[in-house]
Task: structure prediction
Amino acid sequence: MKILRTIGEAQKLTTSLRKKNKTIGFVPTMGYLHEGHLSLVKAARKKADVVIVSIYVNPLQFGPKEDLSKYPRDFKRDELLCRKAEVDYIFYPDDKQMYPDKFSTYVTVENITSILEGRIRPEHFKGVTTIVLKLFNIVQPHFSVFGQKDAQQVAVIKKMNADLNVNTKIIVSPTVREADGLAMSSRNVYLTKEQRADAPYLQKSLQYAKRKILLEGYNKDIEFLEGQMSKLIKSRKTATKIDYISFNDYYTLEEIKSLKNSNNSAILISLAVRFGKVRLIDNIVIKR
Amino acid sequence: MKILRTIGEAQKLTTSLRKKNKTIGFVPTMGYLHEGHLSLVKAARKKADVVIVSIYVNPLQFGPKEDLSKYPRDFKRDELLCRKAEVDYIFYPDDKQMYPDKFSTYVTVENITSILEGRIRPEHFKGVTTIVLKLFNIVQPHFSVFGQKDAQQVAVIKKMNADLNVNTKIIVSPTVREADGLAMSSRNVYLTKEQRADAPYLQKSLQYAKRKILLEGYNKDIEFLEGQMSKLIKSRKTATKIDYISFNDYYTLEEIKSLKNSNNSAILISLAVRFGKVRLIDNIVIKR
Result:
C-alpha cells in the first residue's frame, strides 16, 4: 500500500492506470475509519483492479456552527485498517492543495439539496459535491462506493454525475450496524453511555414503520406512522430533538405525502435526531 | 468524419480512444463557424491524434434579454467546413440530452465572473462553465483549444480547471481578424454596412494603447489611455455605447489601477462596445 500526498502524483498514477486498462475503485472518506467504511472498501476490492481510498476532512462541507477542528482524526490507525483491507493507495492531501488561496469554483446541485439534511445544513451539500467532483477528477475512478447510510448524499452525487455527465459509476453499499442496530458513524464516539443506549431507537422506529407498511399495506397514513415513530424515539430520555422524519422517493428524493396514491418503486424513510450535541441520522428503504 | 449525436456514443468513443492512448484535441463551439473557429481546429489538428469539435448553442449562457432563438445556425455549412479542416468527429447533441427535465447541477466560478463581461451578463459564465465541464466529461479531451478573443472566458475556464482539478489542458489560440483588424465573430453578420466600417476601431483603440505603453513606458496613466481610447471609438457615429474599457492582469483578471506600480507579467486590455443592438468585444495582451 502506498500513500499519495499530492494531487499531481495521484493524477499521474490514475492516468497511467487508466492507460493500462486497470479498473479503479474509489472510496472517498473523511478518515477515522470504522466497519462501515471498511465494508465500502470490501465492495470496491471485489470489483476493482486497484482500490484507492481518500482520507480528507473536507472543511467546505462543515457549517459555521459545526466544529471542523473537533472532527475525530487518527491517520496511523486508518493507515493500518486500509492495509489490512488490502487497499492499494491512500490519497491523503492537505488543505493547501485542495483549497489553495483564492479557490473560487463550486459545484451545486439545486432542489434536492435544500430538503432533509440540506434544510438543517444549508451549505453542506455544496461542499460535498465540490470535493467529490474534485476527487473524481484526481482519482479518475471507474466506480465509487458510497454508504447507504447517507442516502441523500448518494442521491445528490448521482444527480451531479447524471447532470454533469461524470463518467464514474456510483455503487451503494448497505449500512453497517452495531449488534443492537445503531448505524456505524464516526460521530458515535461522542455519545455518553446513556445516549448510546438510546441511539438504536432510530433504527427501531424505522423498522417499525417498514413492518407496518409491509404487513398492513400501502394505505397506511404517513402522519400516523411519523407520529408513532416520533413517540417511540421521544420515549428515550436522551433523544433531545427530532430534526425530521421524512418519507421520500429513494431515487429523486421527492417528498411522499400519501402512500396510497404513490407509485414510487422504492421509498426512503429517513430521520435525524439529536442527542444533546450529537446529531445522528439513519434511514430505511422499502422496495415495492 | 463522423457525427456523434448522443452523449452515450460520444462518451463510449472517447473512453475507447483513451484506452488506445490516442490524444484527443477538442474545440467546443456554438457553430456558425468562421475563420476564428477554424484556426482553433488547426491548432488542435497539429497536436492531436483525434480532433473533436462540438457544435451546440448552449441556452444556459444566454441571458433573459439575449435572443437565443436568433443566434445564427447553419449545420450543413459547419459540417462542410469541419470536413475540410480534417475534423474527425463532430459532437452535435440536442437540448433534451444536454439539459434533460429537472436538470439542476451548476458549476460556478466566483469573483472573476462578476467583472467585465460578467458585470453586463450576470449568469453568462455560470452557463459557460457548466456546459464546458459537461463537454469535458463527455469528450474527455487531453487538451482543448479556446480563442484569445474571449479572454475572460479563457481565464474563467482555466480557473475552473485548476480549482476542480480537471485533467484537460487549455490551449489559447490567437484571435483571427479581418484584413482591417475586426475580430472574427458570429455576431459580425448582424452589422450594417456603416457599423461594419466603424467596428475596426475597437482593435485600433487597443493598438493605440499598446503602442503608447510600449513606446512611452509603463508610467502611462490608465485614465488617460482609457480616455483616448474612448475618444477614438466615440469618433465613430455608429458606436452607440462603450460598456467597458478595462486593464486587468491577463491571468488572474485582477484590475490594474496603475501601470506604474504594477508588476503583472501580462496585461490584458479589453473592451465591449455596442453598435446599436450588436455588441462586440475585443482585447489585446501586453507581455512584459
